[in-house]
Amino acid sequence: LAKTTQPISMDSYEGQEVNITCSHNNIATNDYITWYQQFPSQGPRFIIQGYKTKVTNEVASLFIPADRKSSTLSLPRVSLSDTAVYYCLVGDLIYSTLTFGKGTMLLVSP
Amino acid sequence: GAVVSQHPSRVICKSGTSVKIECRSLDFQATTMFWYRQFPKQSLMLMATSNEGSKATYEQGVEKDKFLINHASLTLSTLTVTSAHPEDSSFYICSALPRRTGAYEQYFGPGTRLTVT
Fold first, then answer.
1. For residue range B70-96, what is the model confidence (pLDDT) as tens digits?
2. Which of A83, A97, B63, B106 has its CA 20 to 30 A from that of B46?
């Protein structure tokens, strides 16, 4: 399974755009990139998933360069409720097992 | 849609007793269910993978005789912590993979906080 590296923590203010980058240098051809959000004492919540280029949904965008060795989760106009831990995961969807890294603790301040 | 529930949300038990945690997919059938454990300020650690009707596959270092997993139906998986000890105190989270073509998103339950005294 590809190992991921993320910043341990990030700080932002309400209304700003936040970009969290994840490195996955040994990503395999069949691997997809998935991001989850977790609040304290809750299960992770799926945010977005992609394979290449750009994916956008109602809550975030995911940018993946051509070499796929990194990815960036973009959260537009964050609010206080976006304070959480964000996990980047890389894996083969067929086998489905997820390996969680340490995640990025995002703190949004007023 | 895609809601996963866990019961109980919190449980306190005495050392040496067994505790059963249920994980249900409420509005979909799950091909596979997963069990994770999370210690305070740490990431999730996969414990085991279970497919309906077959034996669970445990990750290295997880004792299969201590953490019994039963995946009796496409909507229910149970984790039983047998002879619990204080070091088993943790946050246990299940997830489910929908049984439909093109579904690659795991949906997580809200977690169960186990405290062994």
1. 988 999 999 999 999 999 999 999 999
2. A83
Secondary structure letter of residue B59 according to DSSP: P
Q: Which of A89, A94, A97 to mutate to test the interface with B (most CBs of B within 10 A)?
A: A97
Going by C-alpha positions, the residue among A13, A11, A35 that lies closest to residue A22 is A35
CB burial readout A64-90, b (16+ within 10 A) else e: beeebebbbbbbeebeeebbbbbbbbb
Pairing of strands A18-23, A31-38: unpaired
Reduced to 3 states (helix: H, G, I; strand: E, B; else coil), residue B106 is coil
- Give the whole-angstrom CA distance, residue B11 versus residue A94: 34
A102/chain B closest Cα distance in angstroms: 5
pLDDT tens by residue, A49-100: 999 999 999 999 999 999 999 999 999 999 999 999 999 998 876 656 777 8
- The residue in chain A having the minimum alpha-carbon distance to the alpha carbon of residue B113 is A41
Query: B44 vs A77, B26, B40, B108, CA distance in Å?
Result: 28, 23, 10, 12
- As given in the structure block, the two tokens for residue B50 are 């279970």
Phi then psi for residue B87, to 5 deg, are -70, -10
Contacts of A34 in chain B (CB under 8 A): 105
Please, what is the Cα angle at B58 between A102 and B27, to 5 degrees? 80
Tracing tokens 């997880």 back to the chain, one arrives at B62
